[in-house]
Design a protein that fits this description.
Mean pLDDT: 93
Number of domains: 3
InterPro entries: ACT-like_dom_sf (IPR045865), ACT_dom (IPR002912), ACT_ThrD-II-like (IPR044561), Ser/Thr_Dehydratase (IPR050147), Thr_deHydtase_catblc (IPR005789), TrpB-like_PALP (IPR001926), TrpB-like_PALP_sf (IPR036052)
Largest sheet: 6 strands, mixed
EC number: 4.3.1.19
Pfam families: ACT, PALP
Oligomer: single chain
Structural class: alpha/beta
Strand content: 15-25%
CATH topology of the largest domain: Rossmann fold
CATH architecture of the largest domain: 3-Layer(aba) Sandwich
GO molecular function: threonine deaminase activity
Organism: Bradyrhizobium ontarionense
Number of strands: 14
Number of helices: 17
Amino acid sequence: MTAYDLNELPVTLNAVRAAAETIGGAVLATACNQSRTLGEICGCNIWLKFENLQFTSSFKERGALNRLNALSAEQRERGVIAMSAGNHAQGVAYNARRLGIPATIVMPVGTPMVKVENTRRHGAEVVISGATLEEAGAFAREHGAAHGMTMIHPYDDPLIIAGQGTVALEMLAAVPALDTLVVPIGGGGLISGMAVVARALKPSLRIVGVQAELYPSMYNAVRGAQLPMRGDTLAEGIAVKSPGRITTEIIRHLVDDVLLVTEPQIERALATLISIEKTVVEGAGAVGLAAVLAHPGDFAGRNVGLVLSGGNIDTRLIASVLTRELAREGRLTQLSIDIVDRPGQLAAVSTLLGDAGANIIEVSHQRTFSDLPAKATLLELVIETRDHAHLNDVMAKLASANFKARCT
């Protein structure tokens, strides 16, 4: 972060306050509640801003509505176009329908189906085009220009940024004692708007951005790094290869640090929020907690505000994440056991596991596709245990009974 005159920025505190007036009553002022349990786990005081509880399950409604309200009558008649991996799409589609504005949304291939269907449900025309958000954006600009539509950019627009900044207005009003904000970064619209507010109202407040390690675009931009961007991230909502010009300028001058989190860290945070807070977030919405869990020393003893930026995630993906987390915790394990192919062996293993307090979830025999002798068979089990210590005890009991068991 470098010293900077806030009045020279393309977005000001007054612009954010004007946005709050514009969207007031139409966008939910979500709760900002303390989580004592997460605070105990992380060694700091934690407040959660539940933007996943907006009508479209994302903070994106704020900027979208602020931008749409600024359109002229002619622009409204011609309609708008936007590119989005999902949440901006829904924010634009929902508010455009409310205002009677035709909307076309271009979404990249691979966008979660829940986000595609929700966008269509809000009345927008959805076009699937491009392998990345950037390719979808190129198509949107070309298509919009050809049809006289106004482009509603997901993050690199002062009115969008001002709308997103209203999140910080609400957080600091609800919890004046906050001394740290931890905010997801994709294109940078949310953290840019929040940073403008935070620096104006409480200059000492620490502002930390978080990106998925697979897509460190803003990290590269502000640190001068050249980390690669690739692959499928659970946090597809912030998988942006080209951050905004306006947002990069604001972040470079107002944000203290940008942290990266791995996919297992994001999964752990998402599962933790479901388990402890009973709230569903998408991958992008979990990266703030992921960063605090991964870097406890950076936040120890501080009053930390986390933005749960969105909750649009497929139920199948939730199930996968929760199951994988159970496996990491030693609560769900797949075992392979070499046994003699004769009656009673399965019963013996089952009895041993039952006596050890393990629960059998799945069981199968493999006689054909195995390199074991013809008189042997491979027994494959999925078992449930309390934790790693319990699992180790179960493995020890199997070994003492001369069963060759291994985790697979």
